[in-house]
Amino acid sequence: MGRLVRISVVAVCAGVVAASLVLTVASTSAQAPAVGQFAPGFTVPRTADGKPDVNGLWQALNSANWDIQDHPATSGVNPGGIGVYGAQPAGLGIVEFNEIPYQPWALARRKENFEKRLVSDPNDRSAGDPEAKCYMPGVPRATYMPYPFQIIQGTDKIMIAYEFADLARVVYLGELGPPPIDSWMGQSVGRYLGDTLEVTATGFNDQTWFDRAGNFHSEQLKVVERYTPVSPYHLSYEATVEDPKVFTRPWTIAFPLYRRMERGARLLEFKCVEFSEEFLYGKLRRPPGR
Fold it and tell me: Whole-model pTM?
């Protein structure tokens, strides 16, 4: 009797394993295509003028806004004080080979940024994560913040509307002169290369970070983004980052963007200025009701 029971248990376990394998194969076949790879049988949709159609409401599903490199879970900004609120989730990085080629001085600066990420000093513009101050996030960070954004294609311009800070970015199609001034989001110029929208962004200031881990750049930053439809529900996003003042060579990030498909999906408001006043001004903040 005992032997029969043992045999039955083994049979049940074998069945569970077999079923798990079937489910694994089925779920794998239903996953999004790898970044840059087209789903089987997928044909890139086109706009009325024959350009690849990237219109839609999109969102990154990763933890790169905390750290664009591989990172473990940590207690975050207020250890133990508010439970898991404010904790940082573990995540896989989006940087190719997980390596950011900092110059030695810049690597030290990156460490200092992280240590001062929760400090706001009016006399030190580099202190504190710009996101905490509700500043414009810059490029490419705006793409992988944990909020949706909407792409609206026109014939000579493309609008990208981000939920964070109710930010709007214009991508100009065609030739454009050099940026007249440095700015938070820079100047974006796009072109179509086959099935891909390529956007070159330049003319940045040095005030934005790539993430909450303190990864940063200088005013010499240049970002070349590539948006490619790879299924009805996904875009492949890649961006090459170049900054000879901070890095020893260009480097690349890549991840999929997911189309928001739920009923009633739309871009909502996140006007975060009022939530940043205490961090920015402390005791100088205007009292409520005045």
Answer: 0.84
